[in-house]
Amino acid sequence: MSALEASLELLASITVGIMVYVGHKHAVRSSALVALYLIFTFFNDIRRSRLFFLQPGLSVFGNLAAGSAALRLYLLVLEEMPKKILLAPAGTPDLQILGVSTGYFSRVLSCYLNPVVVAGFYRQLGPQDIGDLDPEFSSQVLHERLKRQWVRRSSNKSRHRLLLSCLGTWKWEILQIMAVRLVNIGCLLGQPILMEEIIKVVEIRRHPDNHIPLLKRFDLQGATVLVFVGVAVSRTAAAYLSNRLTAKVRGGLIALMMEKIHHICEQDAQNSELLTNLSTDIEIVIEELSACIDVPMLFLETSIGILFLSRFIGKTCFFAVLPAAGNTLCSFFLGRGTVPALVNWTEKTKTRVAKTTEVLKQLPGIKMLGLGPVVRDYIQRLRVEEMQAAMPYRYFMGLLNMLEQFADLGTPAIVIGAAFVSGGFNGKLDPTRVYPVLAGVRLVQAPTNKGVMAYSSVAQLVASLGRFQEFLLLPEQTDSRVRWDPSASLDTFDEVLTDGGSVRRTPNSPAHSPVGIIQFVNASIGFAGVEEALLSGINFVLSRGSVSGIVGATGCGKTTFLRSILGAAKTFGGFVYVDRTAIAYCGSTVWLRDVSIRENIVGYLPFDPVRYEIAIQSCQLVDDFARLPKGDEYIVGPGGLNLSGGQRQRVSLARAVFSRCKITIIDDALNSLDGTTAVAVLQALCGVDGVLRRSGSTVLLSTYLPEVLNVVDQVITLNNQGQVSLDRSSFRSPGQYQTLANVLVSAMPVIRDGAENKEKAAIRRLQSLDIKKVYPQASYDGKHDNDWRMYVVFIESIGKFKFLWLLVLGALLPLSEFLPEFHIRDWTDYAPNDASWLTHYYLLIGLACALVTVSYWLLYNYFAFRAATKLHEEILDTTMRATLGFLTTTKTADILTMFDEDARNCARMLPYHFFRTLYQGFSTFVIWIPEDTSGSVVGMSLLNLFTIQSIFQFFILAWTGSEMSVAVLKKMERFKRTTPQEPTRPPPEDLPEGWPLAGDVELSNVSARYREARDVPPVIRDVSLIIEPGERISFVGRSSSGKTSLMLTLLGFLQYSGVVEIDGVDIDTVTPDFLRSRVITMTQDAVQFNDTIRRNLIPFDMNEEEKDDELAVRQRARRDTMLTHVLQQLNIWNKLSDKGGLDAMLQDVGYSKGEMQLLSVARGTVRRLETGINLIMMDEATSNLDPLRDDATHQFMEQTFQGCTVIIISHRQEVIQTTDCALRLNEGELINVEIPNNPLTWLGAPLPTLPESEMEESGFDFEGGSGSASSPVVIP
């Protein structure tokens, strides 16, 4: 060793020591540079030590080299050990610490994930097994990084602004990937060089007199290890870095999207189609990101490969460019068609998912209307249309995959043929030249194959980011308020032009108003997005700590007025001044997280037990906590599904009370409470000693409770002309007080006392169910499903006979690809100078290309289409036939996932990965066909050895993708197996046409349960009654008395014993969906479709194609006339007349909740007029109407449904008094029959009556009779 070498070695050792020390003290992760240095020098020391030991007299130097290697290995092991003791606080998951602090090779090879892999082999993994992400994956960090670049390019009007922002944000990560790819290219380049040298050595050793130097043999051994290990490590490192980058890009884009959603207008934020499109675009970006980053390296890799080939075949190497150039050109033209085809497919997917979401959210109501089969066919038709729209995209993708295979097979054929004919091989196939050339061709093939897809990948990524950028550039909702500065005079405000064209004054610095906390100065306000002010000329001041009541008729603009204080309305003129302070808002629609009640109330504020106790007591939640399981730790469910409407509102109010904001706005938040509770909450919040009044909060209260006039300091009155006035004292005079009280009472919804109790009863029924026992998928552990069975499921979706073709093609493809290699071996062994073998070689290549063409055409255009539609149909059938108990206890999002992500996986990923698994699996068997020893065997063996890495890599990728798809199939199969289903029966042969014709209903000893189990108490107990045709009856009783349950029994939703007959037909012999389609049902929650008014009125025709013949046109015109007349009779036509009439989209009309119920009444009326159905059921069908409109609607229904059998559930005495009799139920038993204002006559013994206390509590004052509970009650 020279002095210079020794000096450099000493300097390197000192430097490594310093880096190790500094890294240990100041770095979380071990240095990659130190790790790479140690591993390379370790192998070099091993090589040197062996050389020294084999040379006589140099054993001392061998010992020194071995010691050096041992020291380097020791340092490397220390560097790989995680710094857990230094970093881990108590309770930190091991996986999180390992992922942050492990060494370079542990990170690159993902060794720290071994515990997860082992655990996943034995059991299903859960969130507790995964741990947290690295700090650099924090959504806040990713958002700040991407937002910084996005804002920096705000002046850039390019449509690629988001793309440039992403490149600027993660440029160092991208450069790291490219650096590792350069190392990988270098290692790949070493493969053909290594092959050339090994073949030369083998050829030399065939002659006994030739001697190979010892150093040469050691160098070849070391080079072999270096090349193979280098390829594996560099490829793994590139994949590792690429996966980290995709995770960061996904997190950054989603964080940016979530921030934008909070700044755009409410209409855009609620656009489900827009959000579905964004989620699809993000997935496309993630899928194509790695391929796009690799594009620059493809050109470099191709260029190096061609340069290497020139060593062996000279100018003929440029023939390798021809397939690359042709593929790139084809990829360019195909990519131009691929993007529009993908956009079209994505649009169809977006429409289907949006419609499916709409259906799932109201599926119980849809089934109640009998629309289950109709909607099922409609959603499946959308799926078929979606897959048909995907055919052009699949056609292009099939062509691209075929071009990839053509490049794989054709490039070596073109190069070998050109070199043989033009003299590159000097007229003879020599193994020492042919096989290195074939290995060099592989260097060109890999980037060429990727280059075929490159343009398509880049185009899809750019298009997806472009659509994402359009979303980010949507106009944001501007704050129309002006914030006060207490330290500034009125002259120090700046005048700023608003979006509405008016001028507003903006303070120079934030603070309080010198006049009041809220002040309106000649303000004109309206909805955001409209061009005309709804309220104008507002001039008054609200002082701090005041309590103001908002009074006005329905639709006069109370919510708009309150939203102007929040800055969510549009200011057309004047000014709205508000203190710069936090505002607590409680609206009629409550947003709750799927966490405990306490977490929803406290939110992100510090927990204060005193404030918390005051909040829950003032909002009357203490008794609810006593009844709910786990009290305030009770999980509310998604959107508060596990709470009643009143409970949700009171939790929202408690959240506002706990926040202690300076301004509190309560907008219709008391109207979902029963009367007693609403008044108690009102007094506790705003009474003389109310908690909000004591805290000094300025309260604005909008409610229909007349009692509000007793607690407020002032009244803000709104009239229908858009005028707003503030009354500080005169509202207390008897005349004015009565006038305002009448306004409140007339606008009050008719149902409050009954709605809350009814909803609580439904919640209690669900709480009584053991969900894990009822629906096993809730506790499924995933250990008992056979993965191979899932492949059978996929095979059955294709068809077993058709799958045989796929299996045969999967076996023939790898065999046809390897036959040319065997032909080359035989050519070099038996006839290296015979040019006729070239023709046979090309014929084998042509055969392989033909098989590729057939395989991918069938895969993309037949098998994938059939599998996607069949699997979707099975899940859809299962969902549409699910029982009511399942639908009301299962999160809609869980079911929607199968129709969105899982359905997309079945359409795009599963067929491809399944076929690739077959193909690569057969390839692994083909390459291990035993060979005899010959001159070219070494070259072919090395070539296959180089190839096997890629084969195993693609096999594992295909298998992994297939396994992910199998997981989707598992979930689908589990869903189909464990979801309780309604029975399916063929209709009775003797069922009369048009059944039921009369509407006769008879129940004999009927007891019903929500599920079939002895441990579940019946909700209907031994009810027997006969309802004669044409009678109007009502079910009455307290909450949980069984009214709705009895109606659900008549509609076939519940498990029951006994006999239920309609027109003499036992409903147990009729399919439930058919039964419901022959009954007109109207419920409190009106079913609505995001479609035209016409489609909402006649939903049973949604699958019928419109005909253009003259008869069909006349029939449509007559029907439209009838529809218009019904809407006019119900007084909901005026809003349609200037918006397209019956062709107006429902979401554009702006119907209120009450008007939506009237639309449901119109739907039932149209159904009655078109079908003549004589059995009508109504469950609080007009509960959101004011008394005057409710009375008019019931008069209309009495006329329309004259002669029909009508069953009504209502809490309004005025409605019940219009019926022929009222059936009183208590705890599921029929205990009394009451005829309003008439003596009641029985055909049998008397029924026991309720005690007077319970009669008074129920709210009905009817004269009752009595009869026998065991005898059927006959309604005369």
UniProtKB/TrEMBL annotation:
Primary location group:
membrane
Which Pfam families would you find in this protein's record? ABC_membrane, ABC_tran
Keywords from the named record: ATP-binding, Membrane, Nucleotide-binding, Transmembrane, Transmembrane helix, Transport
Q: Where is the ABC transporter domain?
A: 518-745, 1001-1252
* Molecular function GO terms recorded: ABC-type transporter activity; ATP binding; ATP hydrolysis activity
Q: Which domain of life is it from?
A: Eukaryota
Q: Does the keyword Signal apply?
A: no
Outline the segment boundaries, as ranges, of region: Disordered.
1255-1276
Q: Where are the transmembrane segments?
A: 30-46, 58-77, 840-860, 914-930, 950-969
Q: Name its cellular compartments.
A: Membrane
Write down the Gene3D superfamilies for this protein, in alphabetical order. Answer: ABC transporter type 1, transmembrane domain, P-loop containing nucleotide triphosphate hydrolases
- GO cellular component term, pick one: membrane
Where is the ABC transmembrane type-1 domain positioned along the sequence? 182-460, 841-929
Q: Which InterPro entries match?
A: AAA+_ATPase (IPR003593), ABC1_TM_dom (IPR011527), ABC1_TM_sf (IPR036640), ABC_transporter-like_ATP-bd (IPR003439), ABC_transporter-like_CS (IPR017871), ABC_transporter_C-like (IPR050173), P-loop_NTPase (IPR027417)
Q: What is this protein called?
A: ABC multidrug transporter
